[in-house]
Amino acid sequence: MLIGAIEAGGTKFVCSVMDEFNETKDRCVIQTQKPEDTLAEVVDFFKDHPIESLGVGAFGPIDLNVKSDTYGTIKNTPKKEWKDFPLLDELKRIIGVPVAVDTDVNAACLGEFRFGAAEDVDSAMYITIGTGVGAGFVKDDEVFKGVTHPEMGHIKVKKMDGDTFRGSCPYHEDCIEGLVSGPAIEKRTGIKGADISVDDPVWETVAHYIAEALVNYTLVLCPERIIIGGGVMKQAHLYPLIRTEFKKILNDYIEIDDVETYITAPLLNDDQGVIGAAALSKDIRG
Amino acid sequence: MLIGAIEAGGTKFVCSVMDEFNETKDRCVIQTQKPEDTLAEVVDFFKDHPIESLGVGAFGPIDLNVKSDTYGTIKNTPKKEWKDFPLLDELKRIIGVPVAVDTDVNAACLGEFRFGAAEDVDSAMYITIGTGVGAGFVKDDEVFKGVTHPEMGHIKVKKMDGDTFRGSCPYHEDCIEGLVSGPAIEKRTGIKGADISVDDPVWETVAHYIAEALVNYTLVLCPERIIIGGGVMKQAHLYPLIRTEFKKILNDYIEIDDVETYITAPLLNDDQGVIGAAALSKDIRG
User: Fold this and answer.
1) CB A173 within 8 A of CB A117
2) Considering only CB atoms, which chain A residues are within 8 Å of B126?
3) Which residues 6+ apart lie within 8 Å of A266 measured at CB?
4) Do A139 and A220 form a contact (C-beta atoms < 8 A)?
5) I want to staple A54 with a disulfide (CB 3.0 to 4.6 A). Which of A4, A118, B89, B242 is the partner?
6) pTM of the model
7) Looking at the complex, does the CB of residue A68 fall below 8 Å from at least one CB of chain B?
8) How far apart, in whole angstroms, are the C-alpha atoms of residue B73 and residue B62?
9) B101 sits in which H/E element
């Protein structure tokens, strides 16, 4: 039995065919171009594989309100050619199998929850810090959705005394994405994150703001684990800095047994998205 | 068929006996004293009413982790006599019927969700702003719980430029409770909220911070409605101020169809807690 999965990102689509044990049978990476060109390549990849269903973790914003007329449609994205593109309906039509769709971060969260860093707990958040900041939440094996999908990367945090950097988000001053994303770090320092030395004090600032966001998420969602991934977190020295700041800010208000396991790195390398998409697909097959 | 409900607050216990149509059959208010004295009066009230089950919305922090050995026990409260008091087990023992317990704000949220200001939607938050700030969240008719109950009243928000007030919360500088609770308003102005004139600029500050918190809750939980109650919100002129600030801060990042119905006052007067407690009680009866 074969399952299809797509991590549909703004720069690339990772397509995968897996068996029921999550074993990858085939895989390809497609550059994200215009919708019709991208989907032509997607069809081309899947046509040789008799998949029974397809799961998609998509970039967004995407309409995930099942009651809505535009369920599964990409909404107001800066990628103009994709704006209002009915991704779910088009994939159903061209692949001809049942398709499940969720956000990229929800899919990644489900992947880590079922097979990765949160396999042993009942609820977890997955946060990606890269070009943007996004987060998903899974509880009791179910992806959390509100009336629309959460936009947790845009919560605002308390600013550090004396920090005059106004953030890089065009929508909100001092939202977490505008303070800790890759572009935000580059805007603040004038240097790409990967080129900034490990002992540069900017990492303490970044860790502090990430910790402020984690404290807010903790107080609202109370997950059993928080997994942080994404390009910025390739700077592995950030993890201990974040944990230290987190403890300082939370100030024992909620008991967290062990902050080392509470705030952790992903276990599925960069595959949580596609593995989670496959999990979504298995779920609609029932 | 009779149902028992208790809104177990830090200053008073409101006990109620209702029929299956939420009709109140009897009711009493007990001052919160030492646990044994308070519960003696509770037993005294219920002994004449053959209730089939009891629901309790309790002050806290209370352990709501069903897997925990101290499930239903009041934890680290400043009310010393209640610290480590096994409220759930004691009520079961002395009343002799099945007892369901949740936080006061979760119960209140469930009350407004089923019978009040959120009767027509699938998810809602209830926030109380009074001596403290607390919030509950109900989605698809179920009270939301993480690994412990949320402490949403302690999230931190972006500070207004030039605001040097450090908040009144002993745990966290600039958490929302420390900025907008009754005691916070009094600490900031030197005047009790009820005595501050409606056109005093402090209300704009308070509305701004409440709106900052609502934006963060919205981005994380995406509820369909937010209901704000509690003593501070008796200042009804706050509602339009909060809505205006909310729109300004969210800056259209998430589409909210109608902010007038999205942010609203409770409908159950001060009875959402006890009505929600009765709802909890009906649920365990099945």
Assistant:
1) no
2) none
3) A108, A112, A116, A117, A126, A227, A228, A229, A272
4) no
5) A4
6) 0.92
7) no
8) 6
9) strand B99-103
